[in-house]
Amino acid sequence: MEAGLMAKQAAAVAKPNAFPARSLGFGSSVRGGSGTSRIGFEAPASVAWRKRSIQVARQGAIRSEVVVEEKASPPRKDKAGPGRLYVGLPLDVVSDGNVVNHGKAIAAGLRALALLGVDGVELPISWGVAMDSGDWSSYLAVAAMARDAGLRLRVSLHLHCHRRPRLPLPKSVDSAAATDPDILFTDRAGRRRADCLSFAVDDLPVLDGRTPMEAYEEFFRSFRLAFADFFGSVITDITIGLGPNGELRYPSFPPTGSNRFTGVGEFQCYDKYMLADLKRHAEETGSPLWGLSGPHDAPGYNQSPDFGNFFKDHGGSWETPYGQFFLSWYTGKLLSHGDGLLSVASEVFGDLPVALSAKVPLLHCWHDTRSRPSQLTAGFYNTDGRDGYEDVAKIFAKHSCTMIIPGMDLTDGEQPQGVRSCPQSLLSQVMGTCKRHGVKVAGENSSLVRVGTAGFTKIKENVLAEKSTLDSFTYHRMGAEFFSPDHWPLFTEFIRSMAQPEMEKDDIPSNLERLSLSINSVPGNDRELQSA
């Protein structure tokens, strides 16, 4: 299938042959009908917005394209306002074959974002893609495209794998896991989780004589060397992946990879290295029987807290001495991993003019219960009367690390019934804890905001209400649906409303250019990728 992109004056954007590109658009292109109708989305009548227009063109009932009419822009000025605004690039902007995906479409999209006044983009870098090839040229090409568009970069270093799109761990890690599967997280049924390495092996020589921490450091140093010319001027932030999906947590979600589950999740403590550490810890505390296994009365992934006794609000095992012992040990392993990995990152990047950041999940299902089970299985000991984010914030403060919190588009009223979900309450708790410890906070959305939802309104409330502490906000992610007629006008209105300053007359662009970015119908699975 072919995807289309038309661009005039291509010299103003990244040269098309400067990087390998598989295709020219984000999705397949299917032409239907012969007529073309244009629907214009007019911005308010300010000097800046009268001179900038974003249109959506429909060709028949199938093909749609974003058309950006602009004039060669002057150097961007730092703007006052509620914080920096970023847009995440596709997770597979560089594929598992180390090829820039949809390169011309990415270049056109970057110019559209710069035209809107977005500060920068987030570039996801896969540990496996970069280290298996030893070739940074594709990632460097994307960075150059952002630089040429006048955008800043927040680079995310991913130490986990993705199933969709396929972005595996390094081959050396896969080989080690094939020899010793226990270096992977394991659930109660013995299923291995290939998302990332078990935290229990962080400092064990399980990777052909090297420890995972040593392998992570090698990746960081290789990245630093390759991108030396971009730090400070283009790259302003480096986000360290601390676990599955880049978040500080255990892979407690169901192994199917669904991000819509409403159960409690499961403890991930059944690989031999985690069990050995649990056994040792129990013996040191004088209760060796507590170290034989994880909780026997905990529910399964998709079950409610009422299945089994462990998470019951009243009389649950989580409140017993055993429950307190286990949960303290389990969260301690998570905190130790986060502290150790941020220490490595600080050592490698500490002298650069960039900010360090890492992501903490917003696990809001069952938050309106006393035990808060979905947070416990993910490693956050955040129960009734106990702030499980205090120790997390202390670690982030220790390393001068910004905490990225997703879910700033979520409202309590739009959550599924029956799962006691309170994203607004949990977000308020985490942000309040960060404020007490002097930790900067950056925000993200959980998925593309849909028509008819209150998502953009909620994002704006969070960004503006916390403008003294919210360092930046990143909107995920660029792709076919991002530029669709249903979504693009919502996003442009959101950006317009975020206190953009007026452009002076001498800042008005000249040298008319027209970019036409084809956005087409894509399978549901591809659309889901944009919310990752």
From TrEMBL:
Enzyme Commission code: 3.2.1.2
UniProt record, GO biological process: polysaccharide catabolic process
Recorded catalytic activity of this chain's protein: Hydrolysis of (1->4)-alpha-D-glucosidic linkages in polysaccharides so as to remove successive maltose units from the non-reducing ends of the chains
Active site: 247, 444
First-level EC class: hydrolase
Organism: Musa acuminata AAA Group
Keyword annotations from UniProtKB, A to Z: Carbohydrate metabolism, Glycosidase, Hydrolase, Polysaccharide degradation
UniProt name for this protein: Beta-amylase
Pfam families reported in the protein's UniProt record: Glyco_hydro_14 (PF01373)
Family label: Belongs to the glycosyl hydrolase 14 family.
InterPro entries named in the record: GH, Glyco_hydro_14
Gene symbol of the encoding locus: BMY
PANTHER family (UniProt xref): BETA-AMYLASE 1, CHLOROPLASTIC, INACTIVE BETA-AMYLASE 9
Source organism, top-level taxon: Eukaryota
GO molecular function: beta-amylase activity
